[in-house]
Write a structure and sequence with these properties.
Layout (H helix, E strand, L loop, with lengths): L1 H8 L3 H19 L6 H4 L20 E9 L2 E12 L6 E3 L3 H6 L9 H8 L14 E6 L4 E6 L23 E15 L4 E16 L2 E12 L2 E16 L4 E9 L9 E9 L15 E5 L3 E7 L2 E8 L2 E5 L11 E6 L5 E6 L13 E11 L5 E13 L4 E10 L2 E12 L2 E14 L3 E16 L4 E10 L6 H8 L12 E12 L6 E11 L6 E12 L2 E12 L3 E14 L5 E9 L5 E11 L5 E12 L2 E13 L3 E10 L2 E15 L2 E5 L5 E6 L7 E2 L2 E5 L5 E7 L5 E6 L7 E3 L3 E4 L8 E3 L2 E3 L1 E9 L10 E3 L5 E4 L5 E7 L2 E7 L7 E7 L11 E7 L8
Parallel strand pairs: 1-5, 37-44, 46-52
Antiparallel strand pairs: 1-2, 2-3, 4-5, 6-7, 6-35, 7-8, 8-9, 9-10, 10-11, 11-18, 12-15, 13-14, 13-16, 16-17, 18-19, 19-20, 20-21, 21-22, 22-23, 23-24, 24-25, 25-26, 26-27, 27-28, 28-29, 29-30, 30-31, 31-32, 32-33, 33-34, 34-35, 35-36, 37-40, 38-39, 38-41, 41-43, 42-45, 46-49, 47-48, 47-50, ...
Length: 843
């Protein structure tokens, strides 16, 4: 016994506590067994009272916000009543009608008497009283409630479904996202200097569910007029009922049925991001009939995408995740008697293909605008897309303006020979100079993937008659005070073909692309061809590309490019990339570049390059260097190039300032949605999702990018924070709306920390596992190995009490005084103290 006890005492404290709590709170409660403290102290050593570990952590009554997980899927964060039931010593979850609805429990499956009780105001019932085949597990310390409920008692909802009530609108904030770039160049041939400065601005104000935005830029230079150019000003909010975004101000139409239009006005359009991830994009609905309870397996290219047990009768799987593979699905049904059936479901997604029953719409009303702030014709536009089946989707729309009418109608077909989207467009325009003109256009997209031969084919074609005008062409022709500009050449034909051919694991990849463009009023056409081969041999990657371009007005141009790349070092933080380019007419250039990242979190990046150029006029060479620093509040870059013909230098800064209720916080450049993180006194804590970001002295930081309408996990890494600060929680989940800035609060416990080497008055050690309490009677921890106390959150001086039982001689008090000088960052204060039983009064 003594040898085993001695071995146990050498184990880490946390491991021993796990042994104790696992033995007592779980196993012991179920079996009635008790943990023998002599395992910790031996038969002759002092013993601590470990009876408090006989039960799980105490759960108080009240309302508590918990993360709810049902059948292994997170269902959001909800307020859950915790109530004591009859003689229970601890409170347990109590379910209201609203909470059951949030969990998608089919309340029709509940007994009539249970439904009647739940109808009463403020009435809730424990899980055992609901009569469901279900179990629950409450992790109170982790604020998490996990449920397992029989599938027949749960209403169907797509995988990853998050109700709009869980979408976070964020807090009121104002921000400025900025970009500054300075560039200068000196040309040695004519000894001329040229410089330019650019300042880009994106600012915003969030008020409730409304998100106000402005974008603009300012350019200044030797040949640029210095003036501020507004790019877009608008306010936006989502309309959850329609799964759409409402925009007022400067906006863009979707550009799927008609060409995208920039306008000043009102826009309302579908936002697919509001759908569960399993409902976004196109994926076919797999239907069939099972003759018995069967195992359904869906594979694509041999990879299992979905597996589930289906009951006898018809089934439909409509929540497959969309992917870019576009290859047929192989569906296998293994019946209860062991027989298997396999069938194929075509999966070739065209650009406008939708799932069966899915729809999208886009509506805009306003005045056309160009990229320079000018406006033109007013318009109204609406389009609709509808998924009919696995094979067919349809789309159409109308567009009207003063002097212009347009219409579109199309179909998408998903078949064994590929996915085809065909759209027919009609326009009629009234031009002052040329009167009425009308015409038609045809737009075709086709994609076919042949997995057996590793071939991916993609083709597109747009052809229009002489009288057809897109609305953007019409608006441009009318913008200059109504003067027609119909003489500008318009597209007549645009066609492209792309082939990606895999040659096996050892053979590399072949890429072929061909395009053709032709305009009305211009003779000839523009053609381009590109052929490339790419492969990797060990760590060396290489590619060869040959390009030929034929321009109707400029002649031809050829180009050959050889690219070599190789990572360096075991960590592969460095890489070497070399390019050799030649046009076949005596002009050639080369560029070799070494790039490296440095720092624990990759904050630093730098590179050095060597370039050469050869042409009939002579040879030249030069060096270039760049430096990049990704800091917690900005990204700073610099570059310098020294060439025999020129000299260049540039510097850039990107970052943001976010104003919120807690003050002003610097940040990296912001995405559409971002999070403000606050952990009081936890300065220098890092965000695991953006390790370059550290919390400032007030405990504030900004996670610059969140994915709207999806679960985002935000974790704090306490490494680097003071030992005097303890995070109460380190991870949270949030589902932001598009444009929202949620505030994530991480409670902390702060105060001086100390490592106290304590002894009793007679020099003996304190019992391992004894409680350590402060002056208020709050538990700070317990005695560890070697009679050491690691306590946190204590005052500069005071008294601690140590208890290892209820008897008069089973507690003692020690007085401490911390030194004025603090230890090195990350280290607790070390001191010694005597725990005297004579002054061990009750706290």
């Amino acid at each position: 016994m003594s040898v085993f006890a001695a071995s146990l005492q050498r184990l880490p404290v946390r491991l021993l506590l796990c042994l104790v709590s696992a033995s007592t709170s779980g196993w012991a409660e179920a079996s009635g067994l008790e943990f023998d403290s002599r395992f910790l102290h031996g038969e002759t050593g002092p013993g601590a009272d470990v009876s408090r570990f006989q039960h799980a952590d105490a759960v108080p009554e009240g309302e508590q916000v918990l993360d709810l997980v049902i059948n292994e899927h997170w269902s959001g964060r909800w307020s859950v009543p915790l109530r004591r039931q009859s003689q229970d010593l601890q409170a347990s979850p109590c379910y209201t009608k609203v909470l059951l609805e949030a969990l998608s429990i089919d309340q029709a499956k509940l007994a009539a008497s249970v439904r009647e009780q739940l109808q009463q105001a403020d009435r809730c019932l424990p899980l055992s009283a609901l009569g469901l085949e279900a179990s629950e597990q409450l992790d109170f310390s982790g604020l998490r409630l996990t449920l397992q409920v029989a599938q027949q008692a749960v209403l169907y909802s797509p995988r990853d479904y998050l109700p709009p009530t869980q979408w976070d609108s964020g807090v009121p904030v104002a921000f400025i996202d900025y970009q500054v770039n300075l560039f200068s160049q000196n040309n040695r041939h004519d000894d001329q200097d040229w410089s330019q400065a650019f300042f880009g601005l994106r600012s915003g104000l969030n008020t409730g569910g409304w998100y106000w935005r402005h974008e603009g830029n300012l350019q200044a230079g030797d040949d640029v007029e210095r003036r501020y150019q507004p790019v877009a000003t608008y306010v936006q909010r989502d309309v959850a009922r329609w799964q759409a975004q409402l925009t007022l101000g400067d906006a863009y139409s979707r550009g799927e049925v008609f060409d995208s239009i920039a306008y000043l006005g009102l826009g309302l359009g579908s936002d697919e991001r509001m759908l569960p991830a399993s409902q976004r994009g196109f994926a076919p609905t797999v239907t069939g009939i099972a003759h018995s309870t069967a195992l359904l397996t869906i594979r694509q290219r041999g990879v299992v995408l979905h597996e589930a047990t289906v009951q006898a009768g018809p089934f439909a799987i409509s929540d497959l995740y969309a992917n870019g593979l576009s290859d047929d699905l192989e569906v296998t049904l293994r019946e209860a008697d062991g027989t298997e059936r396999t069938f194929i479901v075509p999966y070739q997604a065209a650009p406008l293909a939708l799932r069966p029953g899915a729809s999208r719409f886009d509506f805009s009303l306003g005045r056309w605008r160009d990229g320079l702030g000018g406006t033109g014709a007013e318009h109204v536009q609406g389009s609709w897309q509808q998924g009919l089946s696995n094979r067919f989707s349809v789309h159409g729309g109308m567009l009207g303006a003063d002097g212009y009418q347009g219409a579109a109608l199309g179909v998408t077909v998903n078949s064994h020979v590929g996915a085809v989207a065909l759209t027919a467009l009609q326009s009629r325009a009234g031009l002052r100079a040329q009167g009425q003109t009308s015409g038609q256009a045809l737009r075709l997209n086709w994609r076919q993937v042949m997995a057996s031969s590793l071939t991916d084919l993609n083709a597109s074609l747009t052809s229009s008659s002489h009288g057809y005008m897109g609305f953007n062409d019409f608006a441009r022709s009318q913008r200059d005070f109504g003067v027609d500009r119909y003489d500008q050449p318009r597209a007549r034909l645009r066609a492209s073909l792309t082939v990606n051919q895999g040659l096996g694991e050892q053979g590399g990849r072949l890429h072929l692309q061909a395009t053709r463009a032709q305009r009305w009023g211009q003779g000839g056409s523009d053609l381009s061809y590109s052929l490339g081969y790419f492969h990797r041999q060990g760590v060396l990657g290489y590619g060869i590309t040959a390009t030929r371009e034929l321009f109707a007005s400029m002649g031809s141009r050829n180009q050959f490019v050889l690219t070599l790349s190789m990572p360096l070092g075991e960590t592969r933080r460095s890489s070497l990339i070399s390019n050799l380019t030649s046009d076949g007419n005596g002009q050639a250039s080369s560029n070799t570049r070494l790039s490296t990242t440095a720092g624990e979190h990759g904050q630093w990046g730098y590179g050095l390059g060597l370039s050469t150029r050869h042409d009939p006029r002579g040879d030249s060479a030069g060096l270039a260097a760049n430096l990049l620093y990704r800091g917690p509040v900005a990204e700073i870059s610099g570059s310098l190039a020294q060439h025999s013909d020129y000299r260049q230098a540039g510097v850039g800064v990107r970052g943001a300032l976010v104003g919120h209720a807690g003050g002003l916080t610097g940040a990296q450049s912001l995405g559409e949605s971002f999070a403000i993180v606050h952990a009081p006194d936890a300065a220098r804590a890092r965000l695991k999702q953006a390790p370059q970001v550290q919390l400032d002295a007030r405990g504030y930081g900004v996670l610059p990018q969140l994915t709207p309408y999806s679960i985002n996990t935000v974790e704090l890494d306490p490494k680097g924070t003071s030992q005097d600060v303890e995070l109460q929680i380190s991870s949270q989940r949030v589902v932001p709306r598009a444009g929202a800035a949620p505030l994530l609060y991480y409670p902390t416990r702060s105060g001086r920390s100390a490592l106290i080497d304590a002894r009793r008055a007679d020099g003996s050690i304190l019992p391992f596992g004894a409680q350590v309490l402060d002056e208020r009677g709050e538990e700070l921890g317990m005695v560890g190995q070697g009679s050491r106390l690691h306590v946190r959150g204590i005052n500069e001086q005071g008294r601690l009490q140590v208890r290892w039982g209820e008897g008069q001689q089973q507690h003692c008090s020690l007085f401490y005084r911390l030194p004025g000088s603090k230890p090195a960052p990350g280290a607790p204060t070390a001191l010694s103290a005597t725990c005297d039983t004579a002054v061990g009064d009750e706290l």
